[in-house]
Amino acid sequence: MAMLLLCIVNGRETKRAVHLAREKVAKAINCKAKEIYFTSCGSESDNLAIKGICYKNRERKNHIITTKIEHPAVLHTCESLEKQGVEVTYLNVDEKGCISLYELENAIKENTILISIMSANNEIGTIEPIKEIGKIAKAHKVLFHTDSVQAIGNLKIDVEEMNIDLLSMSAHKFYGPKGVGALYVREGIEFEKLQDGGHQERDKRAGTENVAGIVGLGEAIELAYKNYEGYKDKLKNLRDYYITQVEEKIPNVSLNGDRINRLPGNANISFEGVISEELLYKLDEKGICASGGSACSTANTSPSHVLMAIGANSKRAKGALRVTLGMQNTKEDVDYLVENLVQIVSELRENET
Ligand code: PLP
Questions:
Q1: Which CATH architecture has domain 10-226?
Q2: Does ligand 1 have an atom closer than 6 angstroms to the CB of 322?
Q3: Which of 18, 33, 188, 240 registers the highest number of CB atoms within 10 A of its CB?
Q4: What is the tens place of the pLDDT at every residue in 239-278?
Q5: For 109-119, how does the pLDDT look when each residue is reduced to its tens digit (9 = 90+)?
């Protein structure tokens, strides 16, 4: 009897905790709690959004529009859908990584069901014109999904103001736990579930909920926006300090992405005559963690598809170093990084000649 009572209390408590987390996510992006579905990560949210919409509508409309610089979670989902007969348009981006709204509007056809464009790029940090994309999507009665995995916590996202119909996020990108994500789907939009089983998440995502992860995600998103202005300003200042220091102290470097319109903590710089794997190895010895292309594909050594899409040649792409500054980084950290870069880059260049 005591055990049964405990289970009932725990069951109620966990339900309440999950509900509270859902409300926190909804408040952060200005939607209703019932429009949030918890998942295991950003990749799952992207899959559920894009495949879910395509499968539901495949008899009616089967064309989607995305970009050449999406994360593999979107690109590979689209490639998989192409094999299943869905038509996909991959938009180009300019040299800063920004899409053309004109090209987007021209790509919309009678049978276009979905536009999926990331809010901000994970490698070069470029922020896409989300509000304008939302306006175009709405005017043409096309659904709009955005992969906001890099944006949540770093940018203010309002799904109403920006006309976003579906949005993906991942907790560990805003200091939440790993292994939990969420998908926002506007009320009334039907999508097909991808996983069969129980009726969790209003029958859209079968499987026992990761309660601890969900609670962590809720706390993290609330904290991220509570401290947003100070956090964003601090990161922007540090990022700009890092970029100018590198440009002043190391010759033949080029910034990838937009100087201003980029994620607050992202700096992606190519070092001419340097292979980023060698640079990363040497930085790691100094206790510095960075990334050559995308941290999500560290096993992949081919030149970054994002850098190629912005027109970088393969040498420039292979010499790119992505630094992501975070909440705990200080000016002293940046000075230490730059000091080491000056030395390592010069050594590597000497070895090359
Ligand atoms: N989308 C973007 C833009 C990302 O940067 C990432 C991961 O870094 C993902 C999707 C995948 O998220 P997750 O690792 O939670 O599956």
A1: 3-Layer(aba) Sandwich (3.40)
A2: no
A3: 18
A4: 999 999 999 999 999 999 999 999 999 999 999 999 999 9
A5: 999 999 999 99
